[in-house]
Design goal:
The protein has about 140 residues and is mainly beta. It has one helix at about 110-120; strands at about 1-5, 15-20, 40-45, 50, 55-60, 70-75, 80-85, 90-100, 120-125, 130-135, 135-140. The strands form three sheets. Strands 3, 4, 7, 10 and 11 form a five-stranded mixed sheet that branches. A four-stranded antiparallel sheet has the order 6-5-8-9, covered by helices on one side. It has a two-stranded antiparallel sheet with strand order 1-2. It starts with a strand and ends with a strand.
Length: about 140
């Protein structure tokens, strides 16, 4: 079986999860409807202060995700702490998390990064018809 994925800048990613492999030749699959979805933007801070190069992750909560609809997007903040997810997300409930990105030896910071991502979960809800969702997140300072 094959999976068909369709993308468009003004819509969410979508497609056909399973296209059975049949005899050679053309096959009509019917229309693929891509939901409009929303772009998730916001500001990430550390202890309330703008922070550049923070890793921001938007994901379907682990307790509600199935393989078919799980979503995970990641981006990095600009010098003012602003971020924009790389593509639109369909209506639903998500978790936004943040952690410090970069460092001299990334492998040495893996546990620290995971702990930061774990303790910063903030809910994000995208409703049907919503074209943009703003969600700010604050990473507690380590003092």
């Amino acid at each position: 079986d094959y999976q068909l994925v369709a993308e468009h800048d003004d819509a969410c990613r979508g497609g056909v999860a399973s296209v059975p492999r049949l005899a050679p030749g053309a096959r009509m699959l019917g229309p693929i409807v891509l939901p409009a979805g929303a772009i998730v933007t916001g500001r990430a801070t550390i202890g309330g202060a703008a922070a550049t190069q923070l890793r921001v992750v938007l994901a379907t909560p682990a307790d509600r995700a199935t393989t078919a609809d799980a979503l995970r997007l990641e981006t990095v903040t600009d010098p003012d702490g602003n971020y924009r997810m790389p593509r639109r997300v369909p209506p639903g409930n998500y978790e936004l998390r943040a952690a410090r990105a970069g460092g001299a030896a990334p492998e040495a910071h893996t546990v620290h990064l995971l702990l930061q991502l774990q303790r910063t979960a903030a809910p994000v809800a995208v409703t049907s018809g919503q074209r943009e969702a703003r969600a700010d997140i604050d990473l507690p300072s380590e003092r």
